[in-house]
Design goal:
This protein is mainly β. The protein has one helix at about 35-40, and strands at about 10-15, 20-25, 30-35, 50-55, 60-65, 80-85. The protein has one domain: Trypsin-like serine proteases (Thrombin, subunit H, Beta Barrel). The chain is globular, with a radius of gyration of 12 Å.
């Protein structure tokens, strides 16, 4: 991952394409952290697909909500996503 932290910011999209929240790329292999209530607004649960856009480049991608990275929204705030494709070169 580059040293440009802005390149690791993603926008999580609703089904209509509007931004519902933010996530942050944690690793070179496409692990992303986001806020559980962001996914709850999308009615997303573990195993669901999430559409996102890399904020810095507007490149679209899809990630999966990791079951092992999901926490009860009433008890924890963090959810983990895994990109379905490699990180964009940009």
């Amino acid at each position: 991952m580059s040293g440009d932290f802005k390149a690791g910011i993603i926008r999580i999209l609703r089904m209509d394409g509007k931004t519902v929240g933010t996530g942050f790329v944690l690793t070179d292999d496409g692990i992303i952290a986001t806020y559980v209530p962001t996914l709850s607004k999308r009615c997303s649960r573990p195993g669901d697909k999430v559409h996102l856009v890399f904020h810095h480049t507007d490149i679209k991608a899809t990630a999966t909500v990791e079951p092992d990275g999901w926490r009860d929204p009433n008890r924890r705030d963090i959810a983990i996503l895994r990109l379905e494709t490699p990180l964009p070169a940009e």
